[in-house]
Amino acid sequence: MSRPARPSRFWETLAVVLVKPLSRLLVKRDWRRGERIPRTGGVIIAANHLSWTDPVLLSHFLYNNGRWPVILAKAGLFRVPFLGRAVTALLAIPVDRGSAEAAKSLHISAQRLKDGGAILFYPEGTCTRDPDLWPMVGKTGAARLALESGAPVIPVAHWGAHELLPYGEKKPRLFPRKTFRVSVGPPVDLSKYEGKELHADVLRAATADITAAITQQLAELRGEKAPETPYDPAGR
């Protein structure tokens, strides 16, 4: 019997055998409220983005909480020999940023949701440029996907991946061993947008609600007060 929104058993087993031991080796874990991740049905996991390592570390967290993570990845990865075959087999979705093809990733994501998939979505679109590493103003893709599909949005914040591999660096900082902290919030309440035309103002408002929910979880993880308004790289 086929398993919706999951790779073949071969590719899933290969990924798990490689990722889980590596994740355990690289970081200690402080995982909170994983029971808030729905175990079935299409769901959007909306997370902050700090490092090139956090998709792998978050994938381990989601897998251990019963979900196969469907990741949106740069289209260039799909053109690398073997790696392209692997990420395709693992159900990753290619994203061509800034091109006319970019909307295709949302169409594929919508289909994955219909198949019962868990989409790991970074509303910021890239690693944060906020000087203090708080979530930036988000792009509207996750909000559009949620409002069009009706899938729940689960805010997930994490902290520590940037200590292992800061954004822009290629060499990880392995010692001392870092702690990867994760906190899951309740579903984002987007009910006030139901039935509304998805024009720019609605999508921006819904995106702001998603970003605020992620930021709230991150403030708890960090034990700090978050800024009142998110950093906007376009209007800094």
UniProtKB/TrEMBL annotation:
Keyword Lyase listed: no
GO molecular function, one term: acyltransferase activity
SUPFAM superfamilies the record matches: Glycerol-3-phosphate (1)-acyltransferase (SSF69593)
Coiled-coil blocks: none
Alphabetized UniProt keyword annotations: Acyltransferase, Transferase
Name assigned to this protein: 1-acyl-sn-glycerol-3-phosphate acyltransferase
Domain Phospholipid/glycerol acyltransferase stretches: 43-161
A Pfam family it matches: Acyltransferase
InterPro entries: Plipid/glycerol_acylTrfase (IPR002123)
